[in-house]
């Protein structure tokens, strides 16, 4: 059986965050189970293009191939893609589409319907209230009305119960199957051990005489991630913990300048640091050597970086706008209202949190490792 995975971007386009690693790992894992996976994507990577061979399938491993179509206008148009995927879809048995509000998804859906293929769509937050209320609202509604006509021909892949609820709120009779994203657990178990002072020095180029606690957060610098809320919360916390530090890693997606001005205005230049996008090696080092991870997103369809943090045994503070409602029941941290006061209270509580890193890791490994998730995906969507 041949699966055609269609996505607007694909690994190594890591500027787009966690979903890139998710689709990469899922593709590798299911291909290893003797399913032929052909990825049709573009060479977009943020505002740049990937340095990859384009417009032809590249062999990655047994049963796993990727074709990067060249975009004439980054994130807006690839004529090569539009004219090329017709044949990619025709030759496949299952079409698995990532995202929704992108031209690649639109053409993939149209061509899949024409060829009468089995269609699976993973919207990745496209149905969240935040997404539907921001930018091109009129066009989004037109597309959703169009999709509604063919909804019975689509199987929806939700990456959490929150996303499932969002899909059903729009299409009450939709066929929705929930399979969480995953994490390559073993890849986070080998790392360089660094003390707090050297960790801060490594990523800020500043050596402090004392560092009491290191908090870490990560994500693209976009309004939906609500780093402004996190900064406000931390500004309260450092009044009584002047040697605490917070590192925020992420590429600019519209709000970097605002965040830097906020840090300056609150006199946090010696406590809070934006370090831009980081690669896997640096993410692994920071997650394994920080004390705590925190994420204040207004919405996450899943939140892959949270799974990565608990894979490193780190206690977490997570916004209640994410689907990680059971994080407290599993003694992995705190699930809190997404406002500065409640997050600051969680900061105070977590520094006294009686965490057991090995139990936190076990929760991650047992529930989110790709070995488990990939098999659940295959079983759930009856792919073999």
Question: What do you see in this structure?
Answer:
The protein is 39% helix and 19% strand. It has 384 residues and is an alpha/beta fold. It has 2 domains: 2-182 and 369-380, 3-Layer(aba) Sandwich (Rossmann fold); 186-367, Glycogen Phosphorylase B (Rossmann fold). An 8-stranded mixed beta sheet has the order 5-6-2-1-7-8-9-10, sandwiched between helices. A 6-stranded parallel beta sheet has the order 13-12-11-14-15-16, with helices on both faces. Helix 6 (161-170) links the parallel strand 9 and strand 10 (175-178). Helix 1 packs across helix 14, helix 2 (79-90) packs parallel to helix 3 and helix 11 crosses helix 13. The longest helix has 14 residues, at 18-31. It is globular, with a radius of gyration of 21 Å. It starts with a strand and ends with a helix. The mean pLDDT is 95.
């Amino acid at each position: 059986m041949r699966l055609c995975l269609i996505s607007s971007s694909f690994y190594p386009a890591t500027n787009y965050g966690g979903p890139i690693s998710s689709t990469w790992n899922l593709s590798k894992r299911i291909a290893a189970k003797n399913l032929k996976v052909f990825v049709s994507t573009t060479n977009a990577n943020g505002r740049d293009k990937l340095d990859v061979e384009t417009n032809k399938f590249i062999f990655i491993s047994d049963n796993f191939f990727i074709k990067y179509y060249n975009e004439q206008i980054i994130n807006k148009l690839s004529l090569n893609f539009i004219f090329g995927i017709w044949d990619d879809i025709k030759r496949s048995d299952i079409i698995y589409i990532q995202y929704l509000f992108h031209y690649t998804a639109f053409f993939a859906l149209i061509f899949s319907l024409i060829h009468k293929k089995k269609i699976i769509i993973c919207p990745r937050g496209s149905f969240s209230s935040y997404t539907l209320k921001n930018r091109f609202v009129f066009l989004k509604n037109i597309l959703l009305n169009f999709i509604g006509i063919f909804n019975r021909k689509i199987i929806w892949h939700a990456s959490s119960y929150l996303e499932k609820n969002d899909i059903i709120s729009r299409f009450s009779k939709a066929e929705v199957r929930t399979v969480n994203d995953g994490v390559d657990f073993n890849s986070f178990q080998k790392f360089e051990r660094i003390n707090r002072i050297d960790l801060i020095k490594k990523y800020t180029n500043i050596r402090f005489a004392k560092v009491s606690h290191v908090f870490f957060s990560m994500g693209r610098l976009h309004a939906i991630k609500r780093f402004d809320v996190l900064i406000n919360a931390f500004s309260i916390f450092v009044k009584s913990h002047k040697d605490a530090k917070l590192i925020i890693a992420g590429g600019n997606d519209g709000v970097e300048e605002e965040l830097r001005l906020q840090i300056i205005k609150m006199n946090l230049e010696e406590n809070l640091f934006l370090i831009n996008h980081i690669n896997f090696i640096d993410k692994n080092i920071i997650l394994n050597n920080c004390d705590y991870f925190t994420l204040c997103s207004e919405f996450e369809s899943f939140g892959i970086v949270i799974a990565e943090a608990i894979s490193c045994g780190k206690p977490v503070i997570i916004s209640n706008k994410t689907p990680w409602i059971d994080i407290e029941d599993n003694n992995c941290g705190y699930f809190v209202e997404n406002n500065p006061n409640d997050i600051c209270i969680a900061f105070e509580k977590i520094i006294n949190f009686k965490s057991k890193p090995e139990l936190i890791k076990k929760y991650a490994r047992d529930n989110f490792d790709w070995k488990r998730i990939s098999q659940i995906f295959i079983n759930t969507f009856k792919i073999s």
